[in-house]
Amino acid sequence: MYRTIICGIGMGSRQTANRLLRRAAALVEDGGNIVVMHVIENIPHRHLTELPEEFETTAIAEAERKLAALCKELGIPATIEVRVGVAASLLVAVAREMSADLILLSSHVSDITDYVFSSIVDKVVRHAGCSVLIDRRVDRRHSGSEAQAEDTTLL
Prior knowledge:
Elements: E1 2-8, H1 14-27, E2 28-41, H2 45-48, H3 55-74, E3 79-85, H4 87-97, E4 102-106, H5 112-117, H6 120-127, E5 131-135, H7 146-150
Parallel strand pairs: 1-2, 1-4, 2-3, 4-5
């Protein structure tokens, strides 16, 4: 059992988010804390002039709202953290700030960019000062079924 768990929720499916949150709830000790974290990646300054001024504030508020609603729906008490920056660095930094015992993440199917730039999961595993649990289950999508309708992108 873990006292403080950082549960990293990305822009994946709702099914993945549900699974990660349920796993975190099963692993946290009584009186422990689950921190649901989402990182909005930095936008290069050259693109900032093309976006409305309130883009960042709106994106943070929307992510917080969706994550809080998901936690409430699942009946999982959690602290919501949404930050802007580099995902791997912020996950490691927040885990350190909060003296987390575990970072819980989901992997994805690797592509060429992972080999060139390294994945967020790879960077977190290398730099975290605590244990890292990687959920490797790939969500199944059934065309035309209720499962697909419910498996929408969370953020």
